[in-house]
Amino acid sequence: MLNVVRDFPAARTACKKALDIYRQLATEQPEVYLPDVAGILNNLGNLLRNVRDFAAARSAYEEALDIYRQLAAEQPAAYMPDVARTLNNLGNLLIVVHNFTAARTAYEEALEIRRQLATEQPEVYLQDVAMTLNRSEERRGGKEWRSRWPADH
Predict the structure, then answer these.
(1) If you write DSSP's letter for every residue of 128-144 in order, what string do you get?
(2) Is the distance from CB of 90 to CB of 60 less than 8 angstroms?
(3) Do the Cβ atoms of 111 and 132 come closer than 8 Å?
(4) Percentage of residues in the chain having pLDDT higher than 90
(5) What mean pLDDT do residues 1-23 have?
(6) Distance CA 153, CA 103 (A)
């Protein structure tokens, strides 16, 4: 809620406190609390991107992605959507910091996952395929990005 009312410093503090609590809980019951740690990290990445703390945002997304990948290895149906969402968020950040090759890689992996999910449950995941396609094409198609985006995309 603090992020919605644009009280970013308070939102950042609250996120970090929640993250500390969930990290502690995850040391004792990782199967229960690791998904919460990853979710908070992903949200924190969004918040940090909004306040232009790009290095910290990237770190948060990458840690969330590592956790979601670990969880998806055990329960793919439950966590692959989170892997794709975090990759998409990471791609958005990488565009902002002009790391176009890494952004393309993140978007392509997110798109591959989302396409697979959509073949299994199109009513749930097809809109995510469209969103990732739109974001990657929007970033690629804008004239400010066109000259920097890898040509073979």
Answers:
(1) HHHHHHHHHHHHHHSHH
(2) no
(3) yes
(4) 78
(5) 83
(6) 11
